Amino acid sequence: MSIAEQAEAAEMEIQSDGGIVSAGADEIGGAVPSRPPEITPPADWRAAAAGGNERVAKALESVADVRGLAASYAELRAAVSTGKFANKIVLPDADAPDEDWARFRAALPDPMRAPATADDYVLQAPDWMSGPEVEGGLQGFAAAMHEAGATQAQLRTALDHYYELAARGRAEQERADTRYLQESEAALRRDWGEDYDRNRALAARAVQTLFGEDGDVANLVLKDGSLLGSLPSFARGMAKVGRSMNEDPLVGQGDAGGQDLQTQIDAITAQGMRDGDYYTDGVQQKLQRLYADLHGEERSRS
User: Fold this and answer.
1) Are the beta carbons of 208 and 288 closer than 8 angstroms?
2) 196-211 and 152-192 are packed helices; what angle lies between their axes, rounded to 10 degrees?
């Protein structure tokens, strides 16, 4: 018999002057006495029961009547007595002391609890994101998430979302760089026509001569995300410098050895510009050796 049915049976017991007569009283007196009139609780019984406690008043809003309240109370008592709530973790009030929140978090299972310190989080960035700045940013983010009580799973979800957004932005930047390089090359080809390869070689030679080991200056990233070397104006300027340098014959150009070295430099430079690998380490090292040989002749003749 359910609790509600028990309550119904209990109400069927009629209290008289001499004692209690049950609904089965026909075994004693033969007739079942009529039920006494029900007592109607006051309309504001919920407010009276709450006694000014807003949480209790809120909970009583879902209770239909006093009978329902009694049944709920009986069910609660039964659940408590059977140990149903033995492992229940009570959420503290929003304005509860920090100690209450600390006890609450400590009682949570491991997957639902923040690690002991921010250093205990497992942080792993994609291979294309590395360096001191990235590591420092991750550590700062972990510290903030730990202060908020985030679990490892919550931190992982937030980081994965950030990495996804960063990867999209990186891919879009690469597409924009490719478009800009193609547009810049097309503009230079229109301007230079048949002299394109020669002018490219002159510009590359000027960069190498002027900046030497810092020849990677062409790969400097500008404010808009583009590379310095991809600017048509930069290429035109370096080509002019290269032509002016070429007007003064380099030492060694007067003999076959010097001409051969310069021819190799021009050929490698033009090929690198066409293939897009001019600024790679392999091509740059090869050019540096040729320039060293070419200018080394100048030192030996002086």
Assistant:
1) yes
2) 120
Q: Does residue 159 register a pLDDT over 90?
A: yes
The mean pLDDT of 103-108, rounded to a whole number, is 76
The size of the chain, in residues, is: 302
Measure the CA–CA gap between 18 and 180, rounded to whole angstroms.
Answer: 104
pLDDT tops 60 at residue 218:
yes
Kindly report the backbone phi and psi dihedral angles of residue 19, in degrees, each rounded to the nearest multiple of 5, phi listed first.
150, -155
Which has more pLDDT, 259 or 284? 284
Task: Give bridge partners of residue 227 from the DSSP assignment.
Answer: 221
User: Which of these ranges, 11-20, 202-211, 288-297, has the smallest mean pLDDT?
Assistant: 11-20
Contacts of 237 (CB under 8 A, 6+ apart): 203
CB neighbourhood size of 239 (10 A): 23
What's the sign of the alpha-carbon dihedral 221, 227, 231, 234?
positive
Q: How far apart are CA 293 and CA 262, in angstroms?
A: 10
Check whether 258 has a pLDDT greater than 60.
no
Does residue 184 contact residue 231 with C-beta atoms inside 8 Å? Answer: yes
DSSP calls for 109-151: -GGGS--SSGGGS-----TTS-SHHHHHHHHHHHHHHHHTT--
Give SS3 for 208. Answer: helix
Contacts for 122 with CB less than 8 Å, ≥ 6 apart:
152, 156
| Token reading at 171 | 């891919």
Q: Give dist(CA 77, CA 271) in Å, integer.
A: 87
- How far apart CA 158 and CA 146 sit, in angstroms, is 13
Q: Return the higher-pLDDT residue of 45 and 274.
A: 45
- The residue among 232, 228, 199 whose CA lies nearest residue 216 is 228
Question: Taking the complete model, does pTM exceed 0.90, yes or no?
Answer: no
The token duo for 54 is 């807003």
Confidence band, pLDDT 50/70/90 cuts, at residue 215: low
